[in-house]
Amino acid sequence: MNSESAATATSGRATLRTITGPIGELWCRDPVLSAVAAINAVLFGAFAVGTVLDPTVVNGEPAWLKPTKFAGSIALVCATLGWLGVHLPVDPDFRRRVSRIVGVGLLIEIVLIGGQAARGVGSHFNRATILDGAIGGIMGVTIVIVTVAIAALAVRARGNEFDVHPAFAAGILLGIGWFVVGAFEGAAMIAIQSRVVETTEPTVPVVGWQLVGDFRLAHFVGLHALQLLPLAGYLAAVGHRRGLVDYPRRVVYLVTTGYVAVLLVTAALGVAPALM
Known about the structure:
Largest sheet: 2 strands, antiparallel
Number of strands: 2
Structural class: mainly alpha
Low-confidence stretches: 3-8
Distance between the termini: 65 Å
Mean pLDDT: 85
Number of helices: 10
């Protein structure tokens, strides 16, 4: 690309950021992940309509409820990674390759989950037929590849110099790290071939997950470290710059410690009935 073309491209990106605000900024930071986030945001709305219009029930809940939750989760994960990825001190080509792996992998996941809902069968823990078992196997392998790719970003970035405040950098790395732990908790659920041990304990409002005997709550908590811990790091950095926080990284580590404690408690509650 010559200097004139580069200047034109830079000007175009600046114009896009100005016109569309955060959405344009996200697109400029990572077009692949922003596109996958947008696709899943649209699917989230479509699947949500399906939960209302389609009376089909799978495993005691509307058939389209699981695709709705996964589409929303995938949109959030892709948007977060796309936004934070530019701050990771890794080779840009490597980051783009990871974005493609994550984007394609998560598209495969939502297509398979939505396809199973359309068939009126479960997408997870379903080995009723050879086809169902094959779909479950593809989903399992795909999510492992995606998770390892995301972990590789943090490993490559660790020890390198970030272009952001140290507290924000710590929050980003810790957020990715505990997100990976949360993702592999999903693999643990698959390994034990069950997500719920039926109990009479209270459930979590809205989602209906059991507080005891249900690994999904721990899985949820782990995954959302990707949003909460970088946010804690960003706020600690802002507080430090404004003279409100003396030890910003300590704040990040304190928040992380509390978050991990919650994660461990939810994981313990998930497996408790199985151990009794």
